[in-house]
Amino acid sequence: MPWVEWPNILEQAAQIPIRDDPTANEAALDPVRKDKPREVKAGHDGTWAAHPGLIQACMAVFTNNMGNAPNQIQTVKREAAANLTEEDLLKRPRGVRTMEGLRLNTRVGVPYVAAWLTDSGSVPLYNLMEDTATAEISRVRNWQWLKYGVELDGDGLGVKVNRDLFWRVVEEEMARIEREVGKDKFRKGMYNCTKKLVRFSPANALLPPWMTF
Question: Quick check: pTM over 0.90?
Answer without folding.
Answer: no
